[in-house]
Design a protein that fits this description.
binds calcium ion; binds uridine-diphosphate-N-acetylglucosamine; about 30% strand; 2 domains; Spore Coat Polysaccharide Biosynthesis Protein SpsA, Chain A; alpha/beta; about 450 residues; elongated; eleven-stranded parallel beta sheet
């Protein structure tokens, strides 16, 4: 006995107007399909069968994960269509004693908690199938739940096939179900496509069961937002908004302050420590981890980065980098990939760092470019210093050892090394090693031409 899911994701999603298959569109940094798979996995469903069709290679590529198996629905005019036909493609993997949860790839807001409740309701009620239903003020477009006088679910009628009276029924089919494996297998053999769309409807299983004296349960969802389906870009943005709110709520409940959650964009896998304050307009993406007691100032963007504790970042961009405790960054700094800042570092305004290590207590307070460098501890990098790392063909490395001082407006032409406590005079262009403790002056000496203005006359 196993609980398995069958996730339907073969459809084209034409209303998205997209080259990309619908389930691969992302909300808050993760594809819709992966949200559905995660909800199933977190509900304890270890085998998930994804029915793919339209652009199947792309879908398979995005969802190749442990516990996911792909089956292909043949697509084209010569083939049938419909949710029933899609489920049929997974029949080989349905065992008689399995419980099968059917899900869609375009309902990313479904939660593991609801799936757990659906499964336990199904088991307790000894049903052949349980339909997850919802009550909508406007049920247009959805299949309607038809109950008898004893409130038992007798059938599901598609909107297009409803009678005038049935159109008024507000209880709808979410498209999510839990089935007993053996009975689902039997029902799949009995489906036909005699309906307005000539499709095989999985919903017809309900009527088939009733004819055979089997009972169908209905579990009404508590929060109907969870079954919100995405068919257009407008609905994609609506789903994103709901997901964003869930993410921000979770972070706030775990101790982060988010000053304006409506205007803060944090992706689903981001972690934030206690007492960190996030100002408006912040975007935090990917698997970024932010420590505790940090201040992430407004309009900062952080991508796949690790920020330690008590770090302050103002109006800056941090990409694939890491920042040590008590360090300050910005305003207007740009940390490009593989910038590794130590503790108590200061990276000030208009400083760009790329592929460089900067040791503890070092400072670059204003207007510098530090690329492909290894900077030690307690180093001071003056205003407008340039690490000249590129000769037009290759990138070269600069090493600045502990306690060095690089005077303002200097160029360090890589490859080059400034040794421990080396001192570079302002305005120097350094092409050779600066020895331990030495002062390097690499600029022409000032010449004052006396009374020069008078000689010009
Ligand atoms: C379906 C239900 C309807 C329910 C609604 C909820 C049926 C017959 N109807 O209608 O009762 O209220 O969902 O949203 O089941 N798919 C495939 N292969 C196919 C057809 C569909 O994989 O051949 C997938 C689609 O990609 C989609 C899902 O199944 O993710 C639902 O299909 P769709 O055609 O949108 O069903 P609805 O008409 O909305
Ligand atoms: Ca639909």
């Amino acid at each position: 006995m196993m609980i398995k899911s069958i996730i339907l994701a073969a459809g084209e999603g034409t209303r998205m107007k997209s080259k990309k298959p619908k389930g691969l569109h992302k909300i808050c940094g993760k594809s819709m399909l992966n949200y559905v798979i995660d909800a199933a996995k977190n509900a304890g469903i270890s085998e998930n069968i994804l029915v793919v069709g339209h652009k199947k290679e792309e879908v398979i590529n995005e969802t190749k994960r442990d516990g996911v198996r792909h089956v292909v629905q043949p697509m084209g005019k010569e083939y049938a269509y419909g949710t029933g036909f899609a489920v049929m493609q997974a029949k080989d993997y349905i065992n008689a004693d399995d419980y099968i949860v059917i899900l869609y790839g375009d309902t990313p807001l479904i939660t593991n908690k609801t799936l757990e409740k659906l499964i336990s309701f199904h088991k307790k009620g000894n049903f052949s199938a349980t339909v997850l239903t919802a009550e909508f003020d406007d049920p247009t477009g959805y299949g309607r739940i038809i109950r008898d006088e004893n409130n038992r679910i007798m059938s599901i009628v598609e909107h297009k096939d409803t009678s005038k009276e049935q159109k008024d029924i507000r209880e709808i089919n979410s498209g999510i179900y839990c089935f007993n494996g053996n009975q689902l297998r039997d029902a799949l053999d009995k489906l036909d496509n005699n309906n307005s769309q000539n499709e095989y409807y999985i919903t017809d299983a309900v009527e088939i069961f009733n004819k055979e004296g089997l009972t169908v349960g209905g579990y009404k969802i508590e929060d109907s937002l969870e079954i919100f389906g995405v068919n257009s870009r407008i609905q994609l943005a609506q789903a994103e908004k709901i997901m964003r709110q869930r993410i921000n709520d979770k972070l706030m409940l775990s101790g982060a302050t988010i000053i304006n959650p409506d205007n803060t964009y944090i992706e689903c896998d981001v972690q934030i420590g206690e007492d960190t304050v996030i100002f408006p307009g912040v975007i935090i993406e990917g698997n970024s981890v932010i420590g505790s007691e940090c201040v992430i100032g407004h309009n900062t963007r952080i991508v796949n980065s690790k920020i330690s504790n008590n770090v302050e970042i103002q109006y800056s961009t941090v990409i694939e980098s890491s920042i040590g405790d008590n360090t300050t960054v910005g305003p207007y700094a740009y940390l490009r990939p593989n910038s590794i800042l130590g503790k108590c570092v200061k990276i000030g305004d208009f400083v760009e760092v790329k592929n460089s290590k900067i040791g503890d207590f070092s400072k670059a307070s204003h207007l510098a470019y530090i690329g492909d460098a290894d900077v030690g501890k307690d180093v001071n990098i003056g205003c407008a210093v340039i690490f000249v790392n590129y000769d037009g063909t290759s990138k070269h490395k600069t090493i600045v050892q502990d306690n060095a001082f690089i005077g303002s407006n200097s160029n360090l032409i890589a490859p080059v090394i400034v040794k421990e406590s080396g001192y570079v005079a302002a305005g120097s262009t350094i092409t050779d090693e600066v020895p331990n403790g030495a002062l390097a002056i690499a600029r022409s000496r000032q010449v004052n031409k006396k009374d020069w203005r008078d000689t010009k006359k």
